[in-house]
Structures are given as C-alpha cells and as structure tokens.
Automatic annotation (TrEMBL):
Record flagged with keyword Ribonucleoprotein: yes
Record-stated family: Belongs to the bacterial ribosomal protein bL35 family.
GO cellular component, one term: cytosolic large ribosomal subunit
Record InterPro entries: Ribosomal_bL35, Ribosomal_bL35-like, Ribosomal_bL35_CS, Ribosomal_bL35_sf
An example Gene Ontology biological process: translation
Gene Ontology molecular function terms on file: structural constituent of ribosome
Entry keyword set: Ribonucleoprotein, Ribosomal protein
Protein name: Large ribosomal subunit protein bL35
Length: 67
C-alpha cells in the first residue's frame, strides 16, 4: 500500500481548531476590489468556519488532521 498523503492544497487553505472546527479564509477579497463596497470588504475580513456539510471532504483531503 502506498502512504496516505495530505493534499497540499488543503494543507495551505485549512487549519483545524482545537474544538474540531475547521478554519478557512474568506473568498472574494483578493482582487477586483474597486467595484466592491467598503462594507462588503469589511465583512470579508477575518477567518470563517467550514460548513459542517463540507467537513467530510476536508477529512478525506487531510487524513491526519484528526477530524
């Protein structure tokens, strides 16, 4: 059997918090920011949680994360 490996893309995008939730960065805040309102950009600050429906996919991509 080959070794199980963590997906490098998932490793860069997600962090597992001690409580078991998964932290992710917000989308839509990297470029083309001039047409977005200040309120919209302000609300995109900070981390967000991955929805519990998607945690199964994250667990498959990161088998050693303890999900």
């Amino acid at each position: 059997m080959p070794k199980m490996k963590t997906k490098s893309s998932a490793k860069k995008r997600f962090r597992v918090r001690p409580g078991g939730t998964v932290k992710r960065g917000q989308a839509f805040k990297r470029h083309i920011l001039t047409k977005k309102t200040t309120k919209n950009k302000r609300q995109l600050r900070g981390p967000a949680n991955v929805h519990e429906r998607d945690l199964g996919h994250i667990a498959q991509m990161m088998p050693f994360a303890g999900l």
